[in-house]
Amino acid sequence: MTQEEPGITLTDEQKKKRRSRSIAIAVVLGALVVLFYVVTIVKLGPGIMDRAL
Amino acid sequence: MSLVERQDTISQDSSVWDGGMGSVSDYVALLKPRVMSLVIFTAFVGLMLAPGSVHPVLGAVAILCIAIGAGASGALNMWYDADIDRIMSRTRNRPIPAGKVTGDEALAFGITLSIGSVVTLGLLVNWFAGAFLAFTIFFYVVVYTMWLKRSTPQNIVIGGAAGAFPPMIGWASVTGSVSLESFVLFLIIFMWTPPHFWALALFKSVDYRAAGVPMLPVVAGETSTRHHILVYSLLLAPVGVAPYLLGFAGPVYGAAAALLGLTFLALAADVWRKRDGDVARLACVRLFKYSIFYLFMLFALLLGESLVAGA
């Protein structure tokens, strides 16, 4: 049996900061999804309705 | 070979992890928001002056990408310059010297944003503008920060090009190319940068000397710096009027730019005349503050005229 590595234990302060950074990253990623969606519609224009039946 | 070698600081205690302490606002500070605001403004003016039109959403995306690219350059600059930032009073509260963000975290942040901004600009707007933004980041980080800044007193003369490219990128976002007009916008900021920074360096020369950064006042002396400021101001004043002379700005801009340029020149002459004591320092501070107003006014006038003409 191998002994488990202790690794890094985060302090409460580090955990708090990590949580706020994670939320910020989530917001940015969400905004990017919306941005690419909107730009796709802008670039395609009326062609977005032009679908083969 | 640099005059000042970069010094890395490595924690001696491997059991302590000093990372993960940066808050969102620390990461925002890495982007140099004040520099970013000037980049956003000048890039926006370049975009608005360009012939043709761009969809407002794509225009906003272009400005956003240019701003993020500029911020990424700032983060990479702070990563590389952390050793000298620790020494200078003006910069010692930046996130890395203050111990809030580690150098590795700033590096990763800067590289991620650089790639993200360039690829997004290329994919959503056009690849010429994307490539131009990539070149600008490279120029600021590698040519200016890593090479020129610590090796020559001409650092900000050549390195100033990086800060002058944003209006050209804004222009290129619309046209997919560069032109004489966009080059003139570049030239205004390029000629403005040396007297602006040398005025700052004159009243912060103690800081630069302590950090070993070969700014002009440190290497060539304060008298030589004052000569340089005057010469560059003499060159800047007509360059500021060039948009009118070349026909892409109106007479209101032409008259205002001439007046603003003459005032710049008068303040530069004041710096040149007053060599000692508090009056000399005050003259430098006044020129430094006025230079920011000068650049803002030139671009605001160009923007105002283009909006009036388009209405």
TrEMBL record, chain A:
The chain crosses the membrane at residues 23-44. Keywords: Membrane, Transmembrane, Transmembrane helix. The keyword Membrane applies. This is CoxF protein. It comes from Roseibium marinum.
Automatic annotation (TrEMBL), chain B:
Its EC number is 2.5.1.141. PROSITE patterns: UBIA (PS00943). It is a multi-pass membrane protein. It is found in: Cell membrane. The chain crosses the membrane at residues 35-54, 60-80, 101-121, 127-148, 155-174, 180-203, 229-246, 252-272, 292-310. One of its GO terms (biological process) is heme O biosynthetic process. It holds the Pfam family UbiA. It catalyses: heme b + (2E,6E)-farnesyl diphosphate + H2O = Fe(II)-heme o + diphosphate. InterPro entries: Protohaem_IX_farnesylTrfase (IPR006369), UbiA_prenyltransferase (IPR000537), UbiA_prenylTrfase_CS (IPR030470), UbiA_sf (IPR044878). GO terms for molecular function: protoheme IX farnesyltransferase activity. Converts heme B (protoheme IX) to heme O by substitution of the vinyl group on carbon 2 of heme B porphyrin ring with a hydroxyethyl farnesyl side group. This is Protoheme IX farnesyltransferase. It comes from Roseibium marinum. The gene is ctaB.
